[in-house]
Design a protein that fits this description.
The chain is an alpha/beta fold. The chain folds into two domains: 286 residues, Rossmann fold; 89 residues, no CATH class. The protein is built from 13 helices and 16 strands. The strands form four sheets. The chain has a ten-stranded mixed sheet, with helices on both faces. Strand 4, helix 3 and strand 5 form a beta-alpha-beta unit. Helix 1 crosses helix 12. The radius of gyration is 22 Å and the shape is globular.
């Protein structure tokens, strides 16, 4: 057995305003971010990077396109983390429009792979986050993109574990479903424990993610073969179509993925939308104008109507269900989206009825609280941009619990593993 970890040097890619860093540091002082990168190619403004520097300092922070950063300039590290850009997988786009790995944003996955491949001292752990649709992308070969990522990591000597987690299922204040991916280098204690375990036991009760976020199986474990030949995967994986072979829980060991469908198992305290609201002193600009109320009600309401495509003149029937209006205060919130900010009426923005009986939008501080950031973490940005940044962020509490579990499982003595080595 190797000695317990006293510190873990972390490199944070696609850092945003530092959600991964907050979660890791809340978990333990063991995690030390030694280098970070945040660059937004679609705008001259680099407000996310500026906020990151304001909160954590400029030292060892890069605001350069990661594709232009030589691997040699990135310090050696024990853990590589990042919520890599997800626009090509986002549920905000219909599935048949999801460009996947060939999309402009999707190719940034290969920057992660490039850093791992070119590092002589490869990180012991890789910890990634993305939208849950990733495991079903693209539409014509569902699961292919995820299979390519898994195979790429395995080729560099990793065992890979994943889980789709809805933060609200475990007491957090927002319904936000994301896939979390953990890769363990073969020389880690966790990898040794995986080899000594039964796959289903690891995924359901003994594993890193299972200890942080308990589940129960609702479908039997199944095996999926994943070729180590990426060209073969690209051309032939799930070519006959149908559902993705990957369930919401799984692990890849070598060329075999073991996957099963699970549901959350949690009976602790639930944080609701009402728990994060400001107690008074909300500026008037967040309240709905009475003259706009009918627009909000229309956008939030159920519809069945004829519409005409402005470009083609084609007439079609449009239907959508109604949304709770105003948002329920006794439950976790809906998912924050990047378009949450601004006063213009919208179907997807949160609207609450506060203690005064008036309807209003959520403030930037409340949006930060839904992702478990400190109050005013994004204060340097405009209100609209602050909402955008939170729509792109993650629930830091999920990172915190997984990070704490990594330390617990990696450092725990395991007689079965000691006897097997």
């Amino acid at each position: 057995m190797k000695d317990s970890l006293s510190h873990i040097k972390v490199v944070e890619l696609f850092a945003g305003v530092g959600g991964f860093r907050i979660g890791l540091q809340n978990a333990s002082e063991t995690y030390k971010v030694v280098w970070s990168n945040q660059f937004e190619p679609s705008t001259k403004s680099q407000i996310a990077s500026e906020i990151y520097e304001a909160r954590f300092g400029k030292e060892n922070h890069s605001n350069v396109d990661i594709g232009k950063v030589p691997t040699s300039e990135i310090p050696n590290h024990d853990m590589l983390v990042g919520g890599f850009p997800c626009q090509d997988y986002s549920v905000a786009r219909t599935l048949n429009q999801a460009a996947g790995l060939v999309g402009k944003k999707g190719v940034l996955w290969w920057e992660i792979e490039r850093i791992i491949r070119e590092k002589h001292n490869k990180p012991k752990f890789v910890f990634l986050e993305n939208v849950d649709r990733l495991i079903k992308s693209p539409a014509k070969q569902r699961g292919r993109d995820f299979a390519i990522m898994l195979s790429s990591l395995a080729s560099h000597g990793y065992i890979i574990e994943w889980r789709v987690i809805n933060a609200a299922d475990y007491g957090f204040p927002q319904r936000r479903r994301r896939v979390f991916i953990l890769a363990y280098k073969e020389n880690t204690n966790i990898a040794n424990k995986i080899h000594a375990s039964v796959q289903s036991d690891w995924l359901v009760k003994d594993g890193t993610i299972a200890k942080a976020f308990p589940v129960m199986p609702i479908k039997p474990l199944r095996e999926v073969y994943i070729s180590s030949n990426l060209e073969e995967l690209t051309e032939s994986f799930n070519i006959i179509g149908g559902d993705s072979p990957f369930e919401n829980t799984g692990i890849l060991i070598g060329n075999k993925a073991y996957t099963l469908k699970t549901s959350s198992r949690y009976n602790g305290r639930i944080t609701t939308l009402s728990d994060i609201l400001l107690d008074g002193n909300v500026p008037e600009k967040y309240y709905i104008n009475e003259q706009d109320l009918h627009i909000w009600k229309y956008l939030k309401g159920a519809k069945k109507e004829k519409r005409i495509n402005k470009a083609s003149g084609f007439e079609y029937n449009y239907a959508e269900g109604g949304m709770v209006f105003p948002d329920a205060l006794d439950k976790p919130s809906r998912t924050i989206i990047t378009g949450e900010g601004g006063s213009a009426p919208s179907r997807f923005k949160h609207i609450i009825e506060d203690k005064t009986g008036r309807l209003r939008r959520l403030t930037p501080i409340e949006l930060e609280r839904l992702n478990m950031f400190p109050d005013n973490h994004t204060a340097e940005a405009s209100d609209v941009r602050r909402a955008f940044l939170m729509g792109n962020a993650l629930v830091t509490g999920v990172i915190e619990k997984i990070a704490a579990s990594i330390l617990e499982v990696e450092n725990a003595k395991d007689r079965m593993v000691e006897n097997a080595i």
